[in-house]
Design a protein that fits this description.
Largest sheet of chain A: 5 strands, mixed
Number of helices of chain B: 13
Pfam families (chain A): ETF (PF01012)
Helix content of chain A: 25-40%
GO cellular component, one term (chain A): mitochondrial matrix
Keywords (chain A): Electron transport, Mitochondrion, Transport
Number of strands of chain A: 8
Organism (chain A): Oncorhynchus mykiss
Helix content of chain B: 40-55%
Oligomer: heterodimer
Strand content of chain B: 5-15%
Shape of chain B: globular
Protein name (chain A): Electron transfer flavoprotein subunit beta
Strand order of the largest sheet of chain B: 1-4-5-8
Radius of gyration of chain B: 21 Å
């Protein structure tokens, strides 16, 4: 995930053209958890979904190679893609979850490019489903799911009914490497193609990005001799 | 005088049957995915430990098991026998990516796939395949290939290891030298003379489990590079094996060895590419970061010329390797191309290893940076599975055949 991020000359965003994209690491963990649940026979079928331009099919195929059964590519490109945010994606996921009659929607807790940490929560709210976010442990118990959540204060265990939305945190599992035989099998698995309009979702964003800037260059620090000096300096530069 | 026939021979190979030139530039999706998964594994699991494996001469047993689970230890083996069922191009990509992470591990992968499983897949009976290939697809067991002897390396036709028949058994006597994986292997494909009077047509191939009574191992060689692999002599003293352990027909051993080495060359070329690429990556990264004369050294033409030469050497060797693999997959003759690939890739590896140290300067000479390990790992690729000199003879031989009127 080591990429040099550059702000576009017009400050409207970051340069994504020609930058290698790959599956969000938290989403890898989500895929791994879903495949594991299927291997333990708690769920019947795993569908991998991604929203974006044509290139996302590569990512869907990687999910298929990890063990998902089929994929859905919701095609969003151009201006719509640039403006696409958690709310639009959550609307798409909610519509698909209803259409597919899903029992679980599992996502990464956040994307490491924008760090929004909103899509899972919004999806649950739109569906009016319970949510188990920041999951570090997931256990299915009949019609309920026990989720151990990593929160600021430590670990919280909750029990929620299905259908539910879960978001994966770092320690949930270690994603598998796609094996060569599974990569071969993935070739035969189907990826359905659709547009947001097919799901009745409007992609209009209520958020307008005004400007994107690089963080200011870190200035050199100043050493002071006493606490009084420190207080004086902080007062002088307006911090206190 | 160039007849029409021979010119068709030289040009026709590119066009019919094998994939078009456009796919040399962009691999099929499946191959790209496969390359990516191997690269991810190499970056995350091999890169961080490669230095330790080298320093402590440690065989990467756990990593070999993990690679086995991924299907990398038996890429070309059909799924029915436990392999990944992919083609030789996929295998070449896998070995290159693994070698980029750790040259030694790439060698283990290559020897198991090309030199041990390869001949059994091609010349073995169904029963032999099930017995000698399937357990070696998982990474739990690896095999080795015993052709060279203390008295003959390049001169493979002069095998002095003997095999005589005694009732329902073959009895083997002799010594094999420089056997990679020897101390970690559970079986070997071994070549011995069954009919001395027939010279190289009197050599046969045998399958011997390891350990086995009558087969002992010499001391582990202390090598310059690929130190995580074990290299030692195999000593046979009245080593008895059932008649059914002969691989292929009696007297076909030399042919089996030569054909196996043809394919093995593509594997070693791939290993050399991985090492060369790692050396180039190291140098290019350093050129960005190291400053001298007020700017990153990548701004200096002397460094730029070196990086450019390294990149050209690697990329041209890579295309030769892919072409050889594609010809093999298309079941076309590939002897000349495989030799060209091995020659180009191994010379690219030693060149890149050397220049990478030069770009790093003093830092290239110490073990803090991987450049010195790439330099040492690269060196063997010009020697084993056919020295660069032998490759030149093979290429010239094929070339002259094409021009014969």
């Amino acid at each position: 995930y080591i990429v040099t991020i550059r702000v576009k000359p017009d400050h409207s965003g970051v340069v994504t053209d020609g930058v290698k994209h790959s599956m969000n690491p938290f989403c890898e963990i989500a895929v791994e958890e879903a495949v594991k649940l299927k291997e333990k026979k708690f769920i019947k079928e795993v569908v991998a979904v991604s929203c974006g331009p044509t290139q996302v099919t590569e990512t869907i195929r990687t999910a298929l190679a990890m063990g998902c059964d089929r994929g859905i590519h919701v095609e969003v490109s151009g201006k719509d893609y640039e403006a696409m945010g958690p709310l639009q994606i959550a609307k798409i996921f909610a519509a698909l979850a209803k259409k597919e009659e899903a029992s679980l929607v599992i996502l990464g807790k956040q994307a490491i490019d924008d760090d929004c940490n909103q899509t899972g929560q919004m999806t649950a709210a739109l569906l009016d489903w319970p949510q188990g976010t920041f999951a570090s442990e997931v256990t299915i118990d009949g019609e309920k799911v026990k989720v151990v959540r990593e929160i600021d204060g430590g670990l919280e265990t909750i029990k929620i009914s299905m259908p539910a939305v879960l978001t994966a945190d770092l320690r949930l599992n270690t994603p598998r490497y796609a094996t060569l035989p599974n990569i071969m099998k993935a070739k035969k698995k189907k990826i359905a193609n659709m547009k947001p309009a097919d799901l009745g979702v409007d992609m209009v964003s209520r958020v307008e990005v005004l400007r994107v800037d690089e963080p200011p260059t870190r200035l050199a620090g100043v050493k002071v001799e006493t606490v009084d000096d420190l207080v004086a300096k902080l007062k002088a530069n307006g911090t206190i | 005088m160039l007849s029409l026939d021979s010119s068709r021979k030289t040009l026709g190979l590119c066009v019919s049957g094998c994939r078009s030139l456009s796919s040399l530039a962009e691999l099929p999706e499946m191959h790209q995915m496969m390359r990516q998964t191997c690269r991810d594994y190499a970056d995350r699991e091999l890169g961080p430990i490669a230095g330790k494996l080298d320093k402590e001469h440690l065989f990467p047993a756990q990593q070999v098991r993990e690679l086995g689970a991924m299907g990398v230890m038996a890429v070309e083996v059909p799924e029915a026998l436990g392999g990944a069922g992919m083609d030789y191009l996929a295998y070449s990509l896998a070995v290159e990516e693994i070698s980029r992470g750790c040259g030694s591990t790439g060698c283990v992968v290559s020897v198991n796939n090309s030199l041990y499983i390869g001949p059994i897949l091609k010349f073995g009976t169904q029963k032999q395949k099930e017995q000698w290939i399937t357990p070696f697809t998982t990474g739990e067991k690896v095999g080795c290939f015993a052709l060279s002897e203390p008295g003959n390396g390049s001169d493979a036709g002069a095998a002095s290891t003997l095999a005589r028949q005694e009732g329902e058994e073959w009895v083997l006597n002799g010594t094999k030298a420089w056997i990679t994986n020897s101390w970690d292997a559970s079986a070997t494909v071994i070549f011995a003379t069954t009919d001395k009077s027939l010279k190289h047509k009197g050599i046969s191939a045998f399958l011997v489990p390891m350990p086995h009574p009558g087969l002992s191992l010499g001391k582990k060689e202390d090598k310059l590079g690929i130190r995580a692999t074990s290299t030692a002599n195999l000593i046979l003293e009245d080593c008895r094996i059932p008649l059914g352990n002969m691989l292929g027909s009696r007297g076909s051993g030399f042919k089996i060895a030569m054909q196996t080495l043809d394919s093995g060359r593509i594997g070693i070329a791939s290993q050399a590419l991985g090492i060369a690429q790692a050396a180039l990556d190291c140098a290019a990264d350093y050129a960005h970061k190291r400053t001298a004369f007020g700017a990153p050294i990548g701004k200096l033409q002397a460094v730029q010329f070196k990086l450019a030469d390294m990149a050209v050497a690697v990329e041209s060797a890579r295309l030769l390797t892919w072409k050889a693999a594609m010809l093999k997959d298309a079941k076309k003759p590939f002897t000349k191309e495989a030799a060209m690939a091995k020659l180009a890739a191994s010379e690219a590896a030693t060149f890149c290893g050397h220049q990478s140290i030069q770009v790093l300067g003093g830092m290239g000479y110490v073990t803090d940076m991987p450049a010195e390990r790439h330099y040492r790992d690269a060196r063997i690729t010009e020697i084993y599975e056919g020295t660069s000199e032998i490759q030149r003879l093979v290429i010239a031989g094929q070339l002259l055949k094409e021009y014969a009127s």
